[in-house]
Amino acid sequence: MNTIPYGKTSKQLVLVLSFILYAFLTTAHGQESWRTDFDETCARTTDAMSLSNNELKVLIAKCDQLQTIIEKQEETVRKVFLKRLQMCKNLYVYVLESKSASEKTPK
Amino acid sequence: MKKISCVLLFLLIGASITWAAGTKKRKLPPYEFGSVTINNYSQQSGMPPVVFDHWIHRQYYTCRLCHVDVGFGMSAGATKIRAADNIKGYFCGTCHNGRTTHNKKAVFDSCAKEYSREAYNSRCVKCHEIEKSTLKEDQFFKFAQNLPKERFGNGINWEKAESEGLIKPIDQLEGVSINKAKLKIQPDFALKSKVEGMPEIIFSHKKHTVWNGCELCHPEIFMGIKRGATKYTMIELFEGKYCGVCHDKVAFPQSDCQRCHTKAVQ
Amino acid sequence: MKSVLKLYFTGFRKSIVYLLLLITLFICIDSSQAIDRFELGKIINTIPPNGPFWKYGNVVMRRKTKKAGMSPVVFSHWSHRQHYTCRVCHVDLAMSMRSGDTGITRADYTSGKYCGACHDGRVAFSVKESTNCDRCHMKEKELQDLENQFNAFASRLPLTNFGNGINWSDCLSNGLIKPVKSISSANIPMSLPDKLRNPMKLGTATARSDVSFSHEDHFAEMDCSNCHPDIFSIKKKGTEDFSMDRNIFGNFCGACHMLVAFPMNDCKRCHTSMSNISGV
Fold first, then answer.
1. Residues A6-25: pLDDT tens digits?
2. % of chain C exceeding 70 in pLDDT
3. What is the ipTM, given to two decimal places?
4. What SS3 class is residue C84?
5. Cβ contact, residue pair B24, C94, below 8 Å
6. Residue C275 — pLDDT band, cuts 50, 70, 90?
7. Per the CB 3.0–4.6 Å rule, which of A99, B148, B200, C144 could disulfide with B157?
């Protein structure tokens, strides 16, 4: 081992490190990607009333997609995020219904 | 013989329950109002039941933060919190993890698999309450002292305390909450009470969304898409439905008739 | 649990438990039917005799005083209700309507809670002065004083034969007493809805014993929440198991009308077509 030139180890090290880094980043990314999706999808609960019916429908569809992904997560994550997703989706559905009802019967 | 005794005991208990009807219920002291005992798993694994106090927490956080972002249910025991969840950094462990700081102090850690006697005595028992501590009572009165008074519940007018900036509950928790646009407020409205001459109820979306956002109420509690379309009666509220989900347990109780029935009838 | 049960069901305790059970069973069977005069007579006889007028509505508090080696506190309702309506103490000052429930401590009242809200040396004698202790922690002499004060006070007020021997509602409507409804400008009670102004007829099994209930008279002293929803449902006929014998055991109307407001043996006050003297 001692005979191996210094430069080579450092090259190896860089290689290994970058591999580790890459693997880490991808898993992190894999873990995070549905989180970012979730964050984006449920970010409109504060101003849901200002969305159009179409925008709402798109968001509701996204929620349904997310649900299948979250159902595959480990137990605690599943418990917490399914609930959060449920609440945000239900609000969109509620707002959509409310909007279409008031469109039909203008005051 | 033993069986008979048991049956008799049950009968007696049953009788005493029906006999309690028509008498005054015990009025909780202000420091106990909004306290929730959580005991799905604690006792069976040899820990005392967990006592969670709303007054400690709602001065720092909005209802929405805990009941939407952290994911706590709106009735005692509904969340089915496990020690493992807390250890992984969810539910109580979202904040009680020994790392999150509050007022420049780390918030004490929650459950653990392995722990010393010292940790048990200084940490576990803060949540897994062995006995009522008068310390908490004193803390409560010290805290309540400088806040606007109210006759019922915690004896604190939380709504005023917040709007006057005496408490500043935060609505977002880094890494847990979603960064959102500013809340768009819905109009306030009056609800007619069906008894003639009973003052109308003014429901303020504005004052409620500060604490609750939208998703806590819609559609979980209020699914009516047109206001006034769903009929709810006072009796249902007293039973803990609709407004009664919050008002009686955590927000000011329903014995404060006038705070809802505010608008004089002309 | 088992050992507790065992302890409970041995010997003397057992007989008490069975006795209690028998009584409850009887009452359960009883309340399902209308009562005849004989039964009613029996019920009325269970009402404790009136006792001296000046003692009615006095609450003796000795749970904490005994441990502290003090004489028990004697709180007289009659001396306070001439100045304040029930709601001042039982709503605004958060005193429970069940004795022992509030758990008043010395630290509480010296810091201005409960009794200390008025007994501050300005409105009424102070709870902090050591010379005043006996005025609440009453001994023989103070009790005698209380009786004398009562007699002087009651002499100018309309008589009844029950409770305090004072017709409080007449006093109120004739302006002989003027209790205040609130001691803080922040807690002005709401006004009574028009619909509730007329007395309500509460039907009973026999027409002669129908009851007339006045929201207005009660509202003069109390808030909605003193009764609703703990004691009575807000729906007419919505209160379950609302019967005369339950009243007498301190439920429903009996929550007040056995202890402070006029007692149940004053039948005529509620059953307006009855008479307190039979045959007249």
1. 555 555 655 555 544 444 44
2. 83
3. 0.87
4. strand
5. no
6. confident
7. B148
Q: How many domains does chain A have?
A: 1
Q: Max CA-CA distance within chain B? A: 68
C17 with B258: Cβ contact below 8 A: no
**A46 part of contact set with chain B, CB < 8 Å:** yes
Instruction: Give the whole-angstrom CA distance, residue B114 versus residue B124.
Output: 12
Q: Edge to edge, what strands does the sheet with B261-263 contain?
A: B189-191, B200-203, B261-263
* pLDDT tens, residue by residue, C36-65: 667 667 766 767 777 899 999 999 999 899
Number of inter-chain CB pairs under 8 A, A vs B: 75
d(CA B243, CA B254): 9
CA C116 – CA C134 distance, rounded (Å): 16
In a domain, B167, yes or no: no
Contact of B111 with chain A, judged by CB distance below 8 Å, is answered with: no
The two three-digit tokens of residue C260, written as one number:
């402070």
CA proximity to A45, closest of A13, A91, A3: A91
Residue-wise pLDDT tens digits, A92-103: 999 999 998 888
pTM of the model: 0.87
**pLDDT mean by block of 10 residues, chain B; 266 residues:** 53 54 81 96 95 97 96 95 96 95 93 95 94 89 93 94 96 90 89 82 94 93 82 91 95 93 71
With respect to residue B19, please indicate whether it lies within any of the assigned structural domains.
yes
Domain count, chain B: 2
Q: How far apart are CA B95 and CA C237, in angstroms?
A: 50
**Distance between CA atoms of C51 and C258, rounded to whole angstroms?**
12
Query: B40 with B19, same domain?
Result: no
Judge B/C contact: 3 or more CB pairs < 8 A: yes
Tokens of C83: 């100045």
Q: Which of C94, C190, C223 sits opposite B27 (nearest CB)?
A: C94
B187 and B205 share one domain:
yes
Residues of B in contact with A84 (CB under 8 A): 68-69, 71
C65: left (phi over 0), alpha (psi -120 to 50) or beta: alpha
Domain of residue B118, residue span: 30-144
Measured CA to CA, the distance from residue C124 to residue C114 in angstroms comes to 13
Say whether C21 and B198 touch across the interface (CB within 8 A): no
In the 8-state DSSP scheme, what is residue B123? I
Residue where one domain finishes, among candidates B91, B125, B144: B144
